[in-house]
Amino acid sequence: MTRARKTVGRITFVGSGPGDPALLTTAAVTALAAAGVVVADDAVPQVIRALAGDRVRLAESTPAETAKALLAEARNGETVVRLSVGDPFADDRLVKEVLAVAKTVVPFAVVPGLALGAGTAAYAGVPVGAVRTEADLDDAQGADFEALAAAPGTLVLTLDAADVARVAEQLVAYGRKPDSPASVSCNGTTTGQQTAAGQLGDLELTAAGMSGRLVVTVGKAAAARDKLAWWESRPLYGWRVLVPRTKEQAGAMSERLRGHGAVPVEVPTIAVEPPRTPTQMERAIKGLVTGRYEWVVFTSTNAVRAVREKFTEFGLDARAFAGVKIGCVGESTAEAVRAFGIEPELVPAEEHASSEGLLAEFPPYDEVLDPIDRVLLPRADIATETLVAGLRELGWEIDDVTAYRTVRAAPPAAEIRDAIKSGGFQAVCFTSSSTVRNLVGIAGKPHARTVVACIGPHTAATAREFGLRVDVQPEAATVPALIDALAEFAVARAAEEKEKAAAVAAKKSARTAARRASR
After folding, report:
1. Which pTM value belongs to this model?
2. pLDDT in tens, 60-74
3. 122 in a domain, yes or no?
4. Nearest 5°: phi and psi at 341?
């Protein structure tokens, strides 16, 4: 009788790249999702470690101890990921760990990652080119500066902030010209990245105020940053923007904010709950099945979700909408309907995405062309009467049904409340009157210097009722238009501040010239 062998797991060495989670490779994301245990370096950003949830633990203090821990987990049948910054094979410590695992029968794989130096240089707008030398100067004391100084092309160096002066001094001592263009970046590829440009001889001054691991580029490529900088020059770069929306709704807004360089902070101000009694919704769903309605009008993705949940509860699917026309107040609501397998008949253009916009295009009831005169309107318990009144004026009978309730969310953490009141957010984006009311109710009014952006006139009016100054209101009442309008506001403000600074400098220069002339 053959004895069954214990199944051995697998170890995958994964490079997380320089810091931006968007730079993780598809293979890295797949490996993290499949891992039972993730052993990560402390330097791996928390936002990347969070992808593995509670399966993460920190690496041991030495390569030998870490390799031993990895092998122990794999021999117990676990699928193990060893997560490191940059690329695993660009880190001498990780190479030692891989060599230790390779001596055993435990299978392993390597998922490369973008190196910290090259990735940061690209985000800093420095085109390092095909001819370059990359070096990780963990030990600046023992580095071969003679070879580095003589290396052709661009130097891309990763080093500790404390070693900047020594590295610059040694490169100049071994032949690099002190006026060679140079750039220094910290917190590479994250929303905290900072880059300064100068000359090699002044590198310590250029890097003043920076800490942690820095990426230094030396060579002609560093001079191109003035024209090619893109990451830090985005209009909302570094802005902390408050997003007072439910987690389900905040995703698209936060993603667009990140695209403009902002750091979105999501603070739910409302929670969505079922109606207190299911009777209205149950009657409405029955009416759909029996042909009671000519139209169903959706005013939010929450309404679509509420109807879909009822369909699931009753064992129905999209066929229950057969013969019924669908209207949606905006494109995001329409997308939720399309995900249900239905194409809406009526969606106003983006610039008219509102109840008024929908009413402007909604057909009046015609007793000859419309066999049924009734419209189902599933929506929130606190919805305004604008749509109901407008549809009735067009001749329609309305079943105004509470599909869900909106209740005030719990207050955010104390540090968030303090930041809201003290100006810790550069901007706040309001997408409805209820988000204004509820944010003020659970966290207080945003500070006077916080830029207030409102999606439409009703939201703006509510903000003003609470004493807020409305700085941004897009022409179209949509989330993309709101964020783009905020970005345009930031560009205009930056240009105005630059113009003021230039005027101050010109006055100062004129005063200096006048004093010299009077002597």
Report:
1. 0.75
2. 999 999 999 999 999
3. yes
4. 95, 20
